[in-house]
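Form 7-S
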Amino acid sequence: MEGAAPGWQSGEVKTGTTIIAIEFDGGVVLGSDSRVSAGETVVNRVMNKLSPLHDKIYCALSGSAADAQTIAEIVNYQLDVHSMEIGEEPLVRAAASLVKNISYKYKEELSAHLIVAGWDRRAGGQVYVTLDGLLARQPFAVGGSGSFYVYGFVDAEFRRGMSREESQRFVVNTLSLAMARDGSSGGVAYLVTIDAHGAEEQCILGNELPTFFTQ
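Output:
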């Protein structure tokens, strides 16, 4: 039909992704895939879904990309103002509370689920789940459509007190398994490792990710 919109414009925007965050002794590691879909079309293969909220606080985005990015940008601004007012770095729980409040207040208008993680002077590395008014600290959290494929893996492989390197490997392996099974997850893997010294960002290409099966 003449003038019809392309399929990627008229199709329902899917919320497929895989995000994960884990506490380790001294900090946190966040990870995500990079695929963004609209209908049956991949509209972005390399979106970084790990968004900074402050120097040592990040969030992992899932749901509507626009909604999740909007929440992250609002919280980033509010944390900058809050940090200047108190004259020191904000707490991770404060950032998670802001995300939770916005998500709950606009739960009918926005479709987004953010995992907030970071390091602060009071409680060290922390991971928070924020969903529909919930604010809960957990030793690790997974989200997005790819999480359904890896719950058994993370439950079996997670253990408290893992080192920085072990936690990074845990996150990469989890993302690799999810991206191999979930059609809405894929692309490259983004990692952010946060400790008392700051945040270190990494990008692992698809051909560099580990494999666990032979096709």
